Each structure stands twice: as C-alpha cells, then as structure tokens.
Amino acid sequence: LLEQNTSPAEPEWKWVAEEKAKELLNVKSRSMMQELRDNGEVRFSQPRKRIILYDRDSINDYLERHAKETF
After folding, report:
1. Helices 18-25, 30-38: inter-axial angle, 10-degree rounding
2. Mind listing the pLDDT tens digit of every residue in the chain (71 residues)?
3. Cα separation of 46 and 65, whole Å?
4. For the chain, how big is the Rg over CA atoms in Å?
5. Alpha carbon distance 18, 29 (integer Å)
6. What does the alpha-carbon distance between residue 51 and residue 20 come to, in Å, rounded to a whole number?
7. What is the pTM assigned to this prediction?
8. Please, what is the angle between helix 56-65 and helix 18-25, to 10°?
C-alpha cells in the first residue's frame, strides 16, 4: 500500500518476513511487531522457532482499519 510493486522480478508474496512487514507498517521496533501479534492486530505464522512471517492481507486490513477519511 505504501508503494506499488512494479518489478516483475519481485512478486508480492502472501507471507512476508518481519523486515518487510515493518516496512509496510512503517514500524521501526521488533517490540511493536510483538505488540501487534499479541493483540491479534496482524495475522502471522511461525513455521520454525525463530522465523515469523506476516500475512500481507492482514497488514493491509490493519492499515485500512486505521485509515482516516478525508473531509
């Protein structure tokens, strides 16, 4: 949502790594990502102990829920 991906070499995956999720959400800290997970704000998957992936659709939904309408 922040920028359109126009590069055919980089597809938009359903699951994104934490760094990409932080970029999409404009979040700087891992603790904020933990808070979003703890509060059920964004959907995530943990296929291995130290790997956490975030659902791109839930990130977009989160941004839409917090969007403000213009006047």
Report:
1. 90
2. 444 555 556 678 899 999 999 999 999 999 999 999 999 999 999 999 999 999 999 999 999 999 998 88
3. 24
4. 13
5. 10
6. 13
7. 0.79
8. 20
